Amino acid sequence: MDAEQLRENAHKMVDFIADYYKNIETFPVLSQVEPGYLQKLLPDSAPMQPESLQAVLQEVESAILPGVTHWQSPDYFAYFPSNSSVAGFLGEMLSAGINMVGFSWITSPAATELEMIVLDWLANLLNLPQHFLSKGPGGGAIQGTASEALLVVLLASRDKVLREVGKDALPRLVVYGSDQTHSSLQKACQIAGVHPENLRLLRTERCNEYALSPESLTDAISHDVASGLIPLFLCATVGTTSSTTVDPLLALGKITKRYGIWFHVDAAYAGSACICPEYRHHLNGIEEADSFNMNCHKWFLTNFDCSALWIKDRNALIQSLSTNPEYLKNKASQGSTVIDYKDWQIPLGRRFRSLKLWMVLRLYGVENLQSYIRNHIKLAQHFEHLVAQDSRFEIVATRTFSLVCFRLLPSNKTEEYVNKLNRDLLDAVNSSGKIFISHTVLSGKYILRFAVGAPLTEERHIIAAWKLFQEAASSLLENS
Questions:
Q1: Rounded to whole angstroms, how far apart are CA atoms 345 and 54?
Q2: Is the dihedral angle over the CA atoms 190, 196, 200, 204 positive or is it negative?
Q3: Where are the alpha helices (H) located in 50-145, listed in sequence order?
Q4: Strand, coil or helix: 290
Q5: Which of 153, 229, 277, 352 is most exposed by smallest CB count within 10 Å?
Q6: Angle between helices 314-321 and 146-165 (to 10 degrees)
Q7: What is the rounded average pLDDT of the residues 338-344?
């Protein structure tokens, strides 16, 4: 890589990205293209000779950006946020520039040690138990996603139990969650060899805010034990995908301890909010957990991908995932004086992800990060207030963080009609290109999800979005 060529082209790329952010509100938030659009715009084969960066960027503008859904738009309210920031971008840029593959300590000592340090910083911000810190029996590791984090701890729990009871017991292992648990639990079970009929997604009720009931968990475990099965693993959630409900960690943790079940807590979205003292109580009971995960790339201004996983006993993870071929052996690893993160994850190679998290923590500071979270929650409260003032709409679930669940509810109509009406409302606002939202289903009701969390979102975007909902609702009701 020629340094001067890099300097020249990198400046052009930074200018292009800066202009993208400057003009981001001019794009339709949800891409409006049809499937297969890009095949018609790009050539059938790669060029034989190099092309200029300018030519490529022009094609990005004319062909790529129309097919992009703009997750960083201030009018993006779908799913959960996927934050980008100047600090996160700079950290990602530096990581790409250094471009090391830090699978073991010796391959880049700074990568391993910085990861340990920043995850200890974050653990202390969240007031996690001491056993999750790198100086204790456990520690933290950055995974790519919460799905990967869930998979590796499920594998660790599986292998720990099978070492005790024998490998033939695999068909008897049972995994527990709720019907609100993220679908990554099902995928992890498929990969780990847990039989589909042994995944218990326990039913939740509106009267409990769709949280997992300790009583239903106890009943399910008791029934499985009586049937000769082996309870293995529970995934509880702080901030479920559908409605951001919080499972009762302390009560669930006591049950898992009684039966020797691995207790994993998924706080992929809402974990970020728990750096604010007024939201930390949602993690009460985390001391009972064997593992805990939050996505810094969701709501913590850290560019994708950066999913923080802490584990109570690192040996369980290492025994499950460690390999030691001759070509990777070295004095530091053989002496057991260092952490080799290759043994904490599925792949061998790993990126220098801790750089961007370190940049975010340093360039923003804790107080600004707390203010950032609080501002989004305040904006969500404002949107919730606007919805509540319009008698045509209903708030469907209690707002806990920055997600508002609501629906259009005309009087004297069947549930089937109301569900279709809300599907039409979602299609109307999304096809406008002005905003993008997503939906869920709770108790058979089709629900609109309005998730505030994009870094550029301000109060004016909330007000404009609500006006769009009102206008679309009026049009649908008039024509129904």
A1: 39
A2: positive
A3: 53-59, 86-98, 109-125
A4: coil
A5: 277
A6: 90
A7: 93
Q: How confident is the model at residue 480 (pLDDT cuts 50, 70, 90)?
A: confident
Nearest to 176 by CA among 230, 226, 228: 230
Provide the H-helix boundaries in 303-353: 314-321, 331-334
Distance between CA atoms of 254 and 395, rounded to whole angstroms? 33
What is the residue whose two structure tokens read 């040690």?
113
* DSSP-derived pairing of the beta strands 291-295 and 139-143: unpaired
User: CA separation (Å) from 31 to 19, 68, 414, 439, 458?
Assistant: 19, 6, 33, 17, 22
DSSP state of 304: S
Kind of pairing between the strands at 173-178 and 445-451: unpaired
Helices then strands, each counted (H, E), the chain: 14, 11
3-state secondary structure of 391: coil
Tell me, yes or no, if the pTM score tops 0.85: yes
- The residue with tokens 């009406």 is 421
Output the six-digit token pair for 218.
Answer: 């106890």
Residues 6+ apart with CB under 8 A from 473: 392, 393, 408, 425
Coil, strand or helix: which one is 417? helix
How far, in Å, CA of 265 to CA of 271, rounded?
A: 10
Local structure of residue 153 (DSSP, 8 states): H
Q: Which residues of 48-68 are buried (b: 16+ CB within 10 A; e: fewer)?
A: eeeeeeeeeeeeeeeeeeeeb
Query: β-pairing, 403-408 with 438-442?
Result: unpaired
What is the distance of C-alpha 164 from the center of its chain? Answer: 33
- Provide the residue type at 149 as one letter: A
pLDDT at 479: 84
- pLDDT by residue (tens digit) across 121-158? 999 999 999 999 999 999 999 999 999 999 999 999 99
pLDDT at 1: 67
Confidence of residue 411 (pLDDT cuts 50, 70, 90): confident
How far apart, in whole angstroms, are the C-alpha atoms of residue 319 and residue 214? 31
Q: In what order do the strands lie in the sheet with 438-442?
A: 393-395, 403-408, 445-451, 438-442
What's the mean pLDDT when you consider all of the chain? 96
DSSP code, position 241: T
What is d(CA 333, CA 341) in angstroms, rounded to the nearest whole number?
A: 11
Euclidean distance between CA atoms 118 and 302, whole angstroms: 13
For residues 155-172, give the mean pLDDT: 96
> Would you say 160 and 170 are in contact if contact means Cβ atoms under 8 Å apart?
no
Structure tokens at 325: 């071929």
Look at residue 28 and tell me whether its pLDDT is greater than 90. yes
CA–CA distance, 462 with 85 (Å, rounded to integer): 21
The whole-number pLDDT of residue 413 equals 86
Give the closest residue to 310 by CA, choosing from 330, 298, 294: 294
